[in-house]
């Protein structure tokens, strides 16, 4: 070991079982702001908090990341020393402080899903101000018009398939669920395809409302766990989302919605929209879809 790095940041409690399983891992992928290691059946991200605290993250100080990236090699073996609470790489080690663990789970479920709609207009307005299409080319403004069934609007194929996804989330019809999930999982470019980010956003709304059917959740889980329909990294995000664990930029938006805090919501939404090329917008669009499912299936909008 040439260097010994003491972590000053924090890490997710969810990574501890992966580290303590006793099996060596390896460097899976390397990025500008960090890298992933595979330990057993899971991925662990190590790096900055540029995209928030991740549900499978070990976060270092930003200034440490470039130097460490220059020292690692893809596919190199990684070991965890339980006695020293240290991750051992070929040229450095990272010591973990168990006092500095965070939990990325979203807040408690609300028994009034309609309460999220109080800030629906404010949330949608932030997405409209952002004024960019999603990663699969959907205009948020046009989709809202399509959803509202404006007479002058002709819905695109992608918009219709979002509507089908909204229907599937509330049904127990397995063939209907399977068809639309297979369409959206892995759809789009990048490390986390747009369809997956959208599903993660929808799951964040479901995490605090419990409105999706068990059939929908279970089949999504089966497709993510058992079939190679998308990237390894995207599968990891979806696996955690299905357990109600999300990145801090997502939980920030949902908590602001639950607290009915407009100013905080605006700030947290802007923070989410800054993530990735279109990943933040795709996730925010998924949250919007979840809220529109509530709106379509309640009488709350009559009181707005």
UniProtKB/TrEMBL annotation:
It comes from the Bacteria. InterPro entries: AllH-like. It holds the Pfam family AllH. It comes from Brevibacillus laterosporus. This is DUF2877 domain-containing protein.
């Amino acid at each position: 070991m040439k260097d010994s790095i003491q972590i000053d940041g924090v890490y997710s409690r969810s990574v501890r079982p992966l580290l303590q399983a006793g099996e060596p891992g390896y460097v899976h992928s390397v990025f500008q702001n960090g890298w992933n290691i595979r330990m057993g059946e899971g991925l662990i991200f190590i790096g900055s908090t540029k995209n928030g605290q991740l549900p499978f993250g070990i976060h270092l100080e930003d200034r440490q990341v470039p130097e460490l990236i220059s020292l690692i090699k893809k596919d190199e073996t990684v070991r965890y020393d339980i006695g020293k609470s240290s991750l051992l790489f070929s040229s450095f080690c990272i010591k973990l402080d168990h006092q500095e663990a965070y939990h990325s789970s979203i807040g408690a479920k609300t028994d009034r899903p309609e309460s999220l709609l109080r800030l629906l207009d404010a949330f949608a307005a932030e997405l409209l101000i952002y004024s960019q299409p999603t990663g699969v080319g959907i205009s948020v403004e046009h989709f809202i018009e399509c959803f509202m069934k404006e007479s002058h609007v002709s819905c695109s194929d992608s918009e219709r398939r979002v509507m089908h996804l909204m229907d599937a989330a509330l049904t127990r019809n397995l063939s209907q669920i399977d068809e639309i999930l297979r369409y959206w999982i892995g759809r789009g470019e990048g490390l986390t395809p747009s369809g997956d980010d959208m599903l993660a956003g929808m799951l964040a709304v479901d995490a605090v409302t419990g409105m999706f059917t068990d059939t929908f959740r279970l089949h999504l889980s089966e497709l993510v766990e058992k079939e190679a329909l998308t990237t390894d990294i995207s599968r990891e995000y979806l696996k955690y989302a299905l357990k109600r664990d999300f990145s801090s930029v997502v939980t920030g938006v949902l908590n602001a919605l639950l607290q009915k805090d407009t100013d905080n919501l605006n700030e947290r939404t802007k923070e989410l929209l800054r993530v990735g090329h279109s990943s933040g917008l795709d996730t925010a669009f998924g949250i919007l879809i979840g809220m529109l499912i509530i709106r379509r299936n309640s009488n709350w909008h009559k009181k707005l």
